[in-house]
Amino acid sequence: MSKQLFNVKLSAACAIMALAVSAQAAESDVPEDELTDGTEIRQLESTTNDSSPAAENENFDDIDDLNEDTDDVDELNEDPEDIDELNEDPEDIDELNEDPEGIDELAADQPTEKESNLDELRLSFALYKEAIANASYDEADTLAKRMVELTIRLFGLDSHESAKALTNLGRVQQKNHDYESAVLNFTASIDIIERIADRLNSKLINPLRGLGAAQLGAGRPDLARQAYGRAVHVSHVNEGPHNLMQIRILEELAETHLSMGNTSEALDVHKFIYNLEARNTDLSSEAILPALERQAEWTHRMRMHERERSTWRKIVHILEDSRGKKDLSLITPLTGLGNSYLFVSDFELENFGGAAISSGDAYLKRAVRIAKENPEGDWQIQRRTLLSLADFYTLSDRAGKASKIYRETWKLLSVDEEREPSRFTALETTHILQKIHPPKYYNSRRTDDGKNAPESFESGKIVAAYSVTSRGDTGNIRIIEAEPAGLEEMEYTVTREMRRLIHRPRMADGVAVATHDRTYTHEFFYRPSDVPEPPAEKEEEKTDETVAAEES
Fold this sequence. Notes:
Elements: H1 3-29, H2 60-63, H3 70-73, H4 85-88, H5 90-93, H6 113-133, H7 137-155, H8 160-175, H9 179-196, H10 205-217, H11 221-239, H12 247-259, H13 263-278, H14 289-301, H15 305-323, H16 331-339, H17 346-352, H18 355-358, H19 361-373, H20 379-395, H21 399-412, H22 420-427, E1 431-434, E2 458-468, E3 474-483, H23 488-498, E4 502-504, E5 506-508, E6 511-513, E7 515-526, H24 544-551
Antiparallel strand pairs: 1-4, 2-3, 2-7, 5-6
């Protein structure tokens, strides 16, 4: 064995053994009845840049769909044989099966150690999936560490099962914002697969996606871009350059480009995605709708609103031709088309003024009519269309019309007790309608070019309290927490951006009212060198009088 290969194996083995030790510590330090949900509840959840990393990048909550889909991350769920391959071959479990005379009669009633470990692994995996689904990430972290220990014990370090277990551990650590640990475990998973298979094995895709997501959350989009790019390459090698399974990886790659400010590269990726979906597809059939919907949503994010409107119209025409003009499927594209008129070009404003914006309500009103007139349009669909119309009026500064539609919605949701929870959620709390996107990186002129790695970023946070008027406007903004202190430019930027927040106002007894003591949290990345040093305390200079007084 070469010295280099030995060092790689030794490094991975040490890392995983350390994880097993930490798993035992976690199990002893965290009693089962003290496990808590890893999510933090705030009075108002912070909104983040759609193009920001996410973790809280919550559009990680957008970038990391694999965290929402257990099957994507862990094929153990898809293929129970991966867990229970030992059961396929009794010789692997108990060589005594070859010699019936050598079996102790008591062994029939007592499971072997391997069987006990397999049972525990199955149970741990089931509980892990449940914890992930319930966002109980602390509990999931403890279970994932135990799964790593059991899997290594059962299948050995160099096995696909161990690689999958490490991927699961990295996944939950990413959810807990422990990005450094997540990067180590995704990397360990990749190393194992490369050792027992090769550098182009398809099983590398999931840990590469996880690695990219963790690096993006840690403020290293340059490294995330490399991980996603390699995942795409592995997908091409194994499934061909036009496979549709790569679309989710490409979307994550586009988000990474966007977080780095590489708008043109992100657009190129999405053009490629559209071409993949449109390939060998009738462009006038419903088969093209997923590609068009993705294109409409993306062009909206990129503020290419004329192209967005054109795309929504194509969707409407295809559905009208295939399903008629009163089908419920038209509601979504009509709503998207109507809302796109909240964003008009300078040319449209100059030539058409407010009419350019107000024309969007025609599409939203049509959606309301379809919901009311279609026999299959229940109260929940009507609620959604009415709120979309009312919110459109709020965003276009027509509070009188918005109030009228909100009251109609209140009445709809007050018919019986079944609808009251929906009324509370929709109208008795405030909702942000116009999000803001403060910079994700402090001192954003510094960019990562992917060649020279910058110094490590650290996470910062600014929390502001504010009030919402009965019209949905934001006021009385004040910073109540800043970590680290001293980044006054970021505090000013967040305060300035918050003035642009627009809300669906809270209602009480069918009337819009003001709401106070809301909070907004913005999380960002900064370099330690950006934090100003605290001013040095100047030693008081003693005057002659002071010295004389002391001497006396």
